[in-house]
Amino acid sequence: xxxxxxxxxxxxxxxxxxxxxxxxxxxxxxxxxxxxxxxxxxxxxxxxxxxxxxxxxxxxxxxxxxxxxxxxxxxxxxxxxxxxxxxxxxxxxxxxxxxxxxxxxxxxxxxxxxxxxxxxxxxxxxxxxxxxxxxxxxxxxxxxxxxxxxxxxxxxxxxxxxxxxxxxxxxxxxxxxxxxxxxxxxxxxxxxxxxxxxxxxxxxxxxxxxxxxxxxxxxxxxxxxxxxxxxxxxxxxxxxxxxxxxxxxxxxxxxxxx
Amino acid sequence: xxxxxxxxxxxxxxxxxxxxxxxxxxxxxxxxxxxxxxxxxxxxxxxxxxxxxxxxxxxxxxxxxxxxxxxxxxxxxxxxxxxxxxxxxxxxxxxxxxxxxxxxxxxxxxxxxxxxxxxxxxxxxxxxxxxxxxxxxxxxxxxxxxxxxxxxxxxxxxxxxxxxxxxxxxxxxxxxxxxxxxxxxxxxxxxxxxxxxxxxxxxxxxxxxxxxxxxxxxxxxxxxxxxxxxxxxxxxxxxxxxxxxxxxxxxxxxxxxxxxxxxxxxxxxxxxxxxxxxxxxxxxxxxxxxxxxxxxxxxxxxxxxxxxxxxxxxxxxxxxxxxxxxxxxxxxxxxxxxxxxxxxxxxxxxxxxxxxxxxxxxxxxxxxxxxxxxxxxxxxxxxxxxxxxxxxxxxxxxxxxxxxxxxxxxxxxxxxxxxxxxx
Lengths: 258, 423
Ligand code: SF4
Description:
Strand order of the largest sheet of chain B: 3-4-5-6-7-8
Radius of gyration of chain A: 22 Å
Radius of gyration of chain B: 23 Å
Number of domains of chain A: 2
Number of helices of chain A: 9
Largest sheet of chain B: 6 strands, parallel
Largest sheet of chain A: 5 strands, mixed
Shape of chain A: elongated
Bound molecules: iron/sulfur cluster
CATH architecture of the largest domain in chain B: Alpha-Beta Barrel
CATH class of the largest domain in chain B: Alpha Beta
Number of strands of chain A: 8
Strand content of chain B: 5-15%
Oligomer: heterodimer
Strand content of chain A: 15-25%
Structural class of chain B: alpha/beta
Helix content of chain B: 40-55%
Structural class of chain A: alpha/beta
Number of strands of chain B: 11
Order of helices and strands of chain A: EHEEHHHHEEHEEEHHH
């Protein structure tokens, strides 16, 4: 059993896929270093990221796949659900058939890739709505999120378009990633840690980081949120179905209290 | 009165308007501006209220004072309730600050009528004009047109709003006469068709001059109350059909009547007719996306939708002679008419069958609901189950439905495409 282990980066995955296309032996799985669990029965091969190989494959894919199909592969990578081996099957097939295979939903590989990519796209769509900024330290709009998939980079264009004129920071707390927009451009940061004050703030403790104004509008929003529900139509189950409880934590409205 | 109290009164007064869509606009951000409605072509829900409705816009009345006395309305003149009015500044301030924090997609502004329609409309326009011009706000604005307002005002409003709507309120003229004595049908339909023409001519204009200002780019919608007056579902669907085809409305919203007032003119209901509302939305969906006509869905001998089965299934049972449909051959239009096949699976069937014959297991993979579709299709000429008895199929379907309802607690949310297009 042969397992490819790469460094977790997109280029790393493309390198592994590139190697995989030319490999003589059967590849059991492809895993990022972080996800890889060594096993007695497997032989591992460490893949060194090679930008040249990665670039070559990327170009070949962009030439041979439809735009949507290529995007689906990237989304599957960002899902972090161990789709790498399936991606390899997909591109093998796509490069062999010389015909756009993404319409063939009956094929197991195509179907799985499409389904996973949709889930990621759906979460992006959800976070366009479920993300909340808090104004901190006077002029920074800060939003903590904990998405299932690694969608931070996919969120940027949307928020950049609408908040071009304010500084903001979107913080993926699960992955310690940040997207900081300084009013001009957006920077991706890794290894993000919060200071004590902000950590406390997210626990619901009042700190200096937030001004009176922030509390004022948050209260107004809560007032609004509570008053729009029609008593005669009350349906908490439906609410939860659309907005699963795992998302509530980082919303500022008190969903469970109304 | 402080802002919090006003917000509480004026959002609570607006909540009976069911529309909250933020879709269909193309408004891009401008230099130095705030907001963009073009990246949200399908509409975005920011939260879900305790009644399970999508919260997309800050939905408020400018004021809940009203000169009219519509019998079904909580804000009617003769009700003794707390009243409030915003100022334009308060509305813009709330909108901007909510928007900046990503609480909302924009503003849905409606109002009770104070003094007269023109006066009220002018206040609304002043508010949204200030949002657009002073604050360079490019988020979504849905404005409710006050029936009876001057045409010039309606025109002006359309250049600031992403969507305009005039509520038709009740499905028939008699209903309106009875329950909304201050309003007449003409005052509602006239601005509707004016807006419709304006949207159409604006589209032409925009083709010629790219820089032309957009007029209500998110289209026009309306709402009507279901169950306050005795109209049948057939009457309602015929009305909607006309509104879609002749007045080119984007959406008709159905609002199950919530008895907020006691009045001998109103029916006595234990609960709002939510199941009826739900079936009307399904039938409406068939009108807009599935190529059905109102007369196909219902007819005078059967003027109400079925409580137990969805309208497409009921239609299929009444038209069994058109089935079974061979999935490997049928065109998109006919596939859509099969119970258990939706738009997405119909599209997938068409694209997948180019690669080879589809069998039942392939259909399942694609997402066809076999429990329902099985009685209506063949794959390569063979049946999964051959029953050509209407009543038998019906009994079977109802049994499955019962089972499903028992499982419903563990169910995944609806397919998300379906929800997106709905708005
Ligand atoms: S016009 Fe009629 S429906 Fe509208 S707010 Fe006044 S009373 Fe209510």
